[in-house]
Amino acid sequence: RKEVEQDPGPFNVPEGATVAFNCTYSNSASQSFFWYRQDCRKEPKLLMSVYSSGNEDGRFTAQLNRASQYISLLIRDSKLSDSATYLCVVINSGYALNFGKGTSLLVTP
Amino acid sequence: NAGVTQTPKFRVLKTGQSMTLLCAQDMNHEYMYWYRQDPGMGLRLIHYSVGEGTTAKGEVPDGYNVSRLKKQNFLLGLESAAPSQTSVYFCASTEGLNGATDTQYFGPGTRLTVL
C-alpha cells in the first residue's frame, strides 16, 4: 500500500462550485502535511500547510484528521484558474517528503 | 533571484549513454532534492542532500548518482541510461531551518527521453 493515497479524479466542476479532496496516509507517526498545486507540465508549488486545528487561506480550507489519518482540501467558489493537479504531501520524519499521485481538478465555465 | 534552475530543459539519449543534470539555486538553501515524475506514479525521491558535501538515497536511487560539491549546485548523473529512466526530473530546495517542513521550491523540470 502506498504511503499517501489520493483519488486521481478528474473532478469536473462548474465555476462557483465547492469541491473537496481527501488524502489518506498510512503512517500514524506522520508529522507534517501539505497541499501542493501542479499545473500541466509545470513544477509543483506549495499551496498551503495543513495544521491540526485546520486552516484557511482565502477560498481554500485544509483539515487534518489524525485519528482517521486523512487530510482534506476544500475549495469554495471555484475559479477557472483553480484547474490543476493537487498533490498531498506527508512528512514522517527526517528529510524526505512523500507525495501522493495527485488529484486532477477541471473547473468549467 | 532566479530561484531554482535546471539544465538542460529537454534531452534525448540513446540506451547506454550517460549524462548529468544540473540543478542550481541562488537562495542559499541547505537542502536539495532530486525527484522523478512519471504518469500515474507521482513524484518519487531519487536522492537528496542536507548540506554541501553530503548526499543520501531516496526512494528510487538505482541507476543514478549525485554530487553536491558546492552548496548552490546539486548534480544528478545517469551512468548508463535505460528506457525506464524516461521521465520528468524535478530538482527542489528548502531552506533547511525546519528540516524538510520548510517550503520546497522546485525547478522547472528536465524532460528526458531514453530511446
List the keywords.
heterodimer; A: about 110 residues; mainly beta; six-stranded mixed sheet; five-stranded antiparallel sheet; globular; B: about 120 residues; seven-stranded mixed sheet; four-stranded antiparallel sheet; 11 strands; about 0% helix; about 50% strand
Instruction: Estimate the strand proportion of chain A.
Output: over 45%
> Looking at the structure, what is the overall shape of chain B?
globular
Number of strands of chain B: 11
- What is the averaged pLDDT score of chain A? 92
Please work out how many helical segments of chain B DSSP would assign. 0
What's the N-to-C terminus distance of chain A?
Answer: 37 Å
Structural class call of chain A reads mainly beta
Helical residue percent of chain B?
Answer: under 10%
Quantity of strands of chain A, as a count: 11
Largest sheet of chain B: 7 strands, mixed
Unreliably modeled segments of chain B: none
What is the distance, rounded to the nearest whole angstrom, between the alpha carbons of the first and last residues of chain B? 36 Å
Most residues in contact, chain pair and counts: A-B, 20 and 24 residues
Secondary structure layout:
The complex is a heterodimer of chains A (109) and B (115).
Chain A: E1 4-6, E2 11-14, E3 19-25, E4 32-38, E5 44-50, E6 55-57, E7 60-65, E8 70-75, E9 84-91, E10 97-99, E11 103-108
Parallel strand pairs in A: 2-11
Antiparallel strand pairs in A: 1-3, 3-8, 4-5, 4-9, 6-7, 7-8, 9-10, 9-11
Chain B: E1 4-7, E2 10-13, E3 19-25, E4 31-38, E5 42-49, E6 56-57, E7 64-67, E8 73-78, E9 87-94, E10 105-106, E11 110-114
